[in-house]
Specification:
Length: about 170
């Protein structure tokens, strides 16, 4: 009886230990997946135009008042030019006067990654696509209500899909 009980306890312990081991394994795999880039820099270089590569992958900036979307007023969804992730809705776009497309909110904060940027002796918050890590622009605390934010985005970093249009 005693022996049987011990054997059962031993067996249960093994099962519990093994399931912990398995869950650890799978979370390690998820981590690996999350840390892995969507594409290699070599692939990006092949697939993007020179200007897209400079802005999206090398944190470049298009000249103000030159991009295709700063004065764009159609209803629809703005997506990441590199991976197609949905980033901004046209109804949060507003005229900031900066010369770059400006939005006061993201569709989902989780789709935008914020990184401190201390280049050019300025303290700014860089915004990147959370899915593919491509550079989008910066976010500033001088936007309109209700968020008070200004997502200042390069047109080069965006694609656009009209409401009712094919995505
Ligand atoms: Fe992306």
């Amino acid at each position: 009886m005693m022996k049987n009980g011990l054997a059962r306890l031993f067996f249960i312990t093994i099962i519990i230990a093994f399931s912990f081991y398995l869950s650890g394994q799978s979370s390690q795999e998820n981590m690996k997946e999350n840390n892995q880039p969507v594409k290699t820099e070599k692939q990006w270089k092949q697939e993007l135009t020179d200007e897209e590569y400079r802005v999206l992958r090398q944190c470049g900036t298009e000249p103000a008042f030159t991009g295709k979307y700063y004065n764009h007023k159609e209803d629809g969804t703005y997506v990441c030019a590199a991976c197609g992730a949905k980033l901004f809705r046209s109804d949060t776009k507003y005229e900031s006067g900066s010369g770059w497309p400006s939005f006061y909110a993201a569709i989902d904060k989780k789709t935008i990654k914020e990184v401190e940027d201390n280049n050019f002796s300025m303290r700014r918050i860089e915004i990147k696509c959370a899915n593919c890590d491509s550079h989008l622009g910066h976010v500033f605390p001088d936007g309109p209500k209700p968020t008070g934010l200004r997502y200042c985005v390069n047109s080069v970093s965006l694609g656009f899909s009209k409401d009712g249009g094919k995505e």
